[in-house]
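During the reporting period, our protein records have gained a structure token line. One record among many is quoted in full directly below:
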Amino acid sequence: MIKSLDPRITREQIELNNPINPLADMDQWETYEVFHQKKRGDQHEHVGIVHAPNLEMALLFSKEQFGRRGISVNIWVVKTSNVFASDYDDADIFETVPDKQYREAGGYKVMEMINKYKKENKKII
């Protein structure tokens, strides 16, 4: 293991005589999308992209790049090639029925019932 004052090196336990070179066959590093969570229970938010030779290094780069800038309790790293999105031409899949009165609170007659109860029980209230 490399003896270094840098905790990133010692944490990853990188060896000096490592026969595996992850950069040997790569002309260009892959991109990874980074999501972080500010506090437990919050949703993860996209914070940026990192370039890395593999998933482990992408996580390490993400911790350095986005974890030190603000409060983070969790980081997700996903290959950009694994992120799928709908086409803008398929916008009709998001169209819904415009008449959705059943979702509105105005459809419920609660105030009428409350006022009727108050009127009938004026002596009690």
Summary: The radius of gyration is 28 Å.
